[in-house]
UniProtKB/TrEMBL annotation:
It catalyses: (S)-3-amino-2-methylpropanoate + 2-oxoglutarate = 2-methyl-3-oxopropanoate + L-glutamate; 4-aminobutanoate + 2-oxoglutarate = succinate semialdehyde + L-glutamate. The lineage of its organism: Bacteria, Bacillati, Actinomycetota, Actinomycetes, Mycobacteriales. Pfam families: Aminotran_3. This is (S)-3-amino-2-methylpropionate transaminase. Pathway: Amino-acid degradation; 4-aminobutanoate degradation. Keywords: Aminotransferase, Pyridoxal phosphate, Transferase. It comes from Gordonia jacobaea. InterPro entries: 4NH2But_aminotransferase_bac, Aminotrans_3, Aminotrans_3_PPA_site, Class-III_PLP-dep_AT, PyrdxlP-dep_Trfase, PyrdxlP-dep_Trfase_major, PyrdxlP-dep_Trfase_small. GO terms for molecular function: 4-aminobutyrate:2-oxoglutarate transaminase activity. NCBIfam families: GABAtrnsam, PRK06058.1.
Length: 459
């Protein structure tokens, strides 16, 4: 088997700065942006990309940056993977669009077949393709409501499901995702999440699930609930890994009461956490699963896959969209999934987890030893890892007070040294690491060294 270590990269895999960041060309384009792009579109990094490959992004000024974000878990196979690029070019040379609802094509069918194969569950499945993660989640809810003939949908604290009206209602964090955009879709109810670092129930996932179930039964009612929608590992909320037993207990309750269990694997799916999908690590088989981000190597594509008897309850014409399952995106998805299989990127993700955990744990020990307990928690799975930063008490003892200022300062300092790192979390105090799964060990360790030094310098 070919492995990730056998990849031949098109660009040098190195961190190299030839200007301050942002450089003059990025600053020039940034000024143009102010007069052309709506102010509501933000960017975490003030540099403009010109090229990207493997684990690096080269900006318009020629700086080579280490990419620890993957376009928010999208470019898992690399931002210009040669197999994906070739598949895109080949398909585009034939046709870029016909609309599957008008003149269908084999690529859509092939992607559906592949997703039916690799998603959890040995039952018969069906798949429908869309464009974005939010679109997939919204359609999963549509399917659940129609098939169950119920209306209520359960979401969780710290959840992020998208920016459409329904998915904003399901998303927990107000700023910047929801503020002043309401009124939101009704019949969405929020329940407490298992957040081991901050939850009073700690690592007792079963107890946390029973707490949520009790609230559902009292405040909503099982008989009116169409679905529970949950990220097996929460993304924007802070890479929160629920305590063992939380997901499985919720899933058992769903089965008992004919409530659909929908796993939102938009960010955690496609080898990111060391298995094809994060819910597999909890032994949970969802009724429906939503996917996007890493599915197509950077091309816009999303999907809902689920039990055939549920998916096929929707009347003809009830699902679809003009661009859903675009043929170029389908070609990219087939190539990207093939790369994940042939390069064993699930195994690669687990290897990346070991490297990240070792680096962050050593830094935490060093800071704790120096009386600077700013690293509250290190968590995640595979190449979806996070460090939660907190503010020590005046006497130097540890607390769990969120430290968003330090988080922003560390990300800024890392960027100044050529490392792109993202932040997240309900409290804005989590550094999240989402490197491409094809990043080399040396480059990853260099990026982590820069990030850890930024933590030490700003603690």
């Amino acid at each position: 088997m070919t492995t990730a270590t056998d990849i031949v990269y098109r660009l040098p895999q190195e961190r190299k700065l030839v200007s301050e960041l942002p450089g003059p060309r990025s600053m020039e384009i940034g000024q143009r942006r102010l007069g052309a792009v709506a102010a509501g579109v933000g960017s975490s990094v003030p540099v403009f990309a010109a090229d990207a490959d493997g684990g690096v992004i080269v900006d318009v000024d020629g700086n080579s940056l280490i990419d620890l974000g993957s376009g928010i878990a999208v470019t898992s196979v690399g931002a210009s993977n040669s197999a994906v690029a070739a598949a895109v070019a080949e398909q585009a040379a034939h046709f870029t669009h016909t609309c599957f609802m008008v003149t269908p094509y084999e690529g859509y069918v092939a992607v559906a077949e592949k997703l039916n194969e690799i998603t959890p569950g040995d039952f018969e499945k069906r798949t429908v393709l869309f464009n974005s993660g939010a679109e997939a989640v919204e359609n999963a809810v549509k399917i659940a409501r129609l098939s169950t003939r119920r209306n209520a949908v359960i979401a969780f604290d710290h959840a992020y499901h998208g920016r459409t009206n329904l998915t904003m209602a399901m998303t927990a964090k107000s700023m910047p995702y929801k503020r002043n955009f309401g009124p939101f879709a009704p019949e969405v109810y929020r329940m407490p999440m298992s957040y081991p670092y901050r939850d009073e129930l700690g690592s007792d996932g079963v107890a946390a699930a029973k707490r949520a179930i009790s609230m559902i039964e009292k405040q909503v009612g099982a008989e009116t609930t169409a679905a529970i929608v949950i990220e097996p590992i929460q993304g924007e909320g802070g890479f929160i890994v629920p305590a063992p037993g939380f997901l499985s207990t919720l899933a058992e309750w769903c089965t008992m009461h004919r409530v659909l269990f929908i796993a939102d694997e938009v960010q955690a799916g496609f080898a990111r956490t060391g298995t094809w999908f994060a819910c597999e690590q909890e032994g949970v088989t969802p009724d429906l699963i939503t996917m996007a981000k890493g599915i197509a190597g950077g091309m816009p594509l999303s999907a809902v896959t689920g039990r055939a008897d549920i998916m096929d309850t929707v009347h003809g014409g009830g699902l679809g969209g003009t661009y859903g399952g675009n043929p170029v995106a389908c070609a990219a998805a087939l190539a990207a999934i093939d790369q994940m299989e042939s390069l064993d990127l699930c195994g690669r993700a687990r290897h990346i987890e070991t490297i990240i955990t070792e680096a962050l744990s050593a830094t935490k020990d060093e800071l704790d030893g120096a009386g600077l307990p700013v690293i509250g928690d290190i968590r995640g799975r595979g190449a979806m890892m996070a460090v939660e930063l907190v503010t020590p008490a005046e006497d130097g003892t540890a607390t769990r007070e969120p430290n968003p200022d330090l988080t922003a300062a560390v990300a800024k300092a890392a960027l100044a040294q050529g490392v792109v790192a993202l932040t997240c979390g309900t409290y804005g105090n989590v550094l999240r690491l989402l490197p491409p799964l094809v990043i080399g060990d040396d480059l990853l360790r260099d990026g982590l060294a820069v990030l850890c030094q930024a933590l030490k310098d700003n603690a």
